[in-house]
Amino acid sequence: MTYRFDFSWLPLYWPVILKGLLTTVELILVGALCGVALGVACAGVRALGPRWLRPVVAAYVELIRNTPFLIQLFFIFFGLPSLGLQMSELQAANLAMVVNLGAYSSEIIRAGIEATPRGQFEAGASLAMTRFETFRHVVLIPALQRIWPALSSQIVIVMLGSAVVSQIAAEDVTFAANFIQSRTFRAFETYFLSTALYLLLALALRQALRGVGSLLFPRRAAR
Amino acid sequence: MMTFTVWDILRNLLLAARWTVLLSLVSFLGGGLLGLALLFLRIGKRRAGRLFVQGYVELFQGTPLLMQLFLAFFGLGLFGIDVPAWLAAGLALILWTAAFLVEIWRGCVESVTRGQWEASASLGMGYVQQMRYVILPQAVRVAIPPTVGFSVQVVKGTALTSIIGFVELSKAGTVVTNATFQPFTVYGLVALIYFALCWPLSKSSQILERKFNVAHRHH
């Protein structure tokens, strides 16, 4: 192999990479917050929502979990405008990530809710709490605590999956790498660097989620 | 201008879906074989082997599949090989699949209780016999539902190979969209075809899990 590695483009192009990095971080922050909120809402509907709404949520979850993220993204960005729903690349990327994580996290949270002992619901009822109050104060928080590790890995998976939003020209890390390699023709080096960035991002995100977990559920950490 | 019926669109997409199925099968089987080899390193006695597999898994689970595809596509080129898209796609997907399967299967082997190892050792079995007659038969039962479940991820993963230019279902969706200007219909149909491929797998994974769990309760 006579190939010589060349990173001399780095000083010139690092602002592009930094901008991409910030976009990826923004995408995952919005995606994780809104996605988990949507997941909680969907899991709540499936646990105690109106009967007619439950199969609708179930269909949404199955549809998202059994189709590729790339197609969901294309459908939102290219398909929805024909219904009059026009949005920017970044908005489409954000929406796709929220919709995607919403479906996955609702399944994870549902598993946590189903693991709640029946006695907890009955105890809530015996304290004259409504079904919603029982869900909100008694069931949800321990359920979230139980499934936090699984939820964290799913958030990391969605972050890694966000690399494909470059395909609708949302300017994330991958977009920056594509841009740089088209200018410098140093494809392997740019993708090597961006891969390393994703790896670091995944490690950092995992640590951050562990920290958030011990903040949200302090009792567990104290034990 | 030519007009396209829904049937024209669907027929072209279904023809391309054959490549999605083929690539999924190759990736899943190849990844399964590599994953099995890595599994024996991972649960083996040698420390270096265990560390290697841990690093491998961390690397492939901690980076986007898209980046792995790009690196395979451009990295193989560094060796002076003219890389066709299907080769890079197959290679990257096999390596990626193996990284997930080895972790799933390790969990299954470790779910077999310590007592089983001790009992079989007390019957004078060696490592290979223990594996062959005691541990693996039990681990395989536990492993089947999550393995079938993961095959869904492989099918969905093949969609990314469209980005490096492999013409499968997703790429066909883009091509057909560019010809028909009907993104809503085309991507809707593409999603439905993926759903038709993945949903039976998801469902059977769930059914298998329920079935094997019932068996477990009798132990």
Outline the fold blueprint.
The complex is a heterodimer of chains A (223) and B (219).
Chain A (H helix, E strand, L loop, with lengths): L9 H39 L4 H13 L3 H11 L9 H26 L3 H9 L4 H31 L11 H12 L2 H30 L1 H5 L1
Helix pairs in contact in A: 1-2, 1-4, 1-6, 1-7, 2-4, 3-4, 4-6, 5-6, 6-8, 7-8
Chain B lengths: L5 H37 L4 H15 L3 H13 L7 H26 L3 H9 L4 H31 L11 H12 L2 H35 L2
Family (chain B): Belongs to the binding-protein-dependent transport system permease family. HisMQ subfamily.
InterPro entries (chain B): AA_ABC_transptr_permease_3TM, ArtM/GltK/GlnP/TcyL/YhdX-like, MetI-like, MetI-like_sf
Main location (chain B): membrane
Any descriptors?
heterodimer; A: 223 residues; mainly alpha; MetI-like fold; 9 helices; B: 219 residues; 8 helices
Describe the protein in words.
Chain A has one domain (14-222): MetI-like fold. Helices cover 79% and strands 0% of the residues of chain A. Chain A has helices at residues 10-48, 53-65, 69-79, 89-114, 118-126, 131-161, 173-184, 187-216, 218-222. The N and C termini of chain A lie far apart (56 Å). Chain B has helices spanning 6-42, 47-61, 65-77, 85-110, 114-122, 127-157, 169-180, 183-217. In chain B, 37% of the residues are buried. The mean pLDDT of chain B is 92. Chain B has a single domain, classed as MetI-like fold (Orthogonal Bundle), CATH 1.10.3720.10. Chain B is elongated, with a radius of gyration of 21 Å. Chain A binds chain B through residues 1, 3, 62-63, 65-72, 74-75, 78-83, 156, 160-164, 167, 174, 177, 187-188, 191-192, 194-195, 198-199, 202-203, and chain B through 59, 62-68, 70-71, 74-75, 77-80, 152, 156-157, 159-160, 162-163, 170, 173-174, 177, 182-184, 186-188, 190-191, 194-195, 198-199, 202.
